[in-house]
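Exercise 7b. Backbone tokens:
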């Protein structure tokens, strides 16, 4: 049983996750475009943590692992299609040797990345809840 109806919670979780990830992409790309020394390519740990947080929050809202996995995969897919297009337009996402095949591999890989790290966030949520329940007897 979730705190909200799934007809509301699932789309809200997807939209919020996409908004957070795209905002991160745009802000980091703008910082890199304005400041050439900005360590844009070293921001991947932040992105990893974002997906774990997304999975944690989605599990809190949805209480359904399959839906959390879907939130992560959808967010990963949108980030590496729309997000990459936006970042490419701003500047730091440009890859000179990008072919349709290479782009497809990256999109599929990063969709799996979103799936996997959202799943990890859901596992962290379950561990935290289990520890909290044990602490209260």
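Sequence design result:
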């Amino acid at each position: 049983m979730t705190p909200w109806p799934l007809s509301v919670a699932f789309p809200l979780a997807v939209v919020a996750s996409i908004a957070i990830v795209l905002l991160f992409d745009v802000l980091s790309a703008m910082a890199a475009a304005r400041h050439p020394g900005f360590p844009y390519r070293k921001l991947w740990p932040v992105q990893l943590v974002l997906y774990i947080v997304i999975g944690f929050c989605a599990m809190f809202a949805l209480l359904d692992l399959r839906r959390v996995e879907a939130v992560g995969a959808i967010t990963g897919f949108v980030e590496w299609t729309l997000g990459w297009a936006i970042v490419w337009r701003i500047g730091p996402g440009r890859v000179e040797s990008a072919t349709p095949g290479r782009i497809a591999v990256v999109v599929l890989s990063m969709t799996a990345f979103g799936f996997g790290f959202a799943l990890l966030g859901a596992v962290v949520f379950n561990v935290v809840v289990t520890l909290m329940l044990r602490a209260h007897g």
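Instructor comment: The helical segments are 6-34, 44-62, 65-90, 100-135. The first helix runs from residue 6 to 34.
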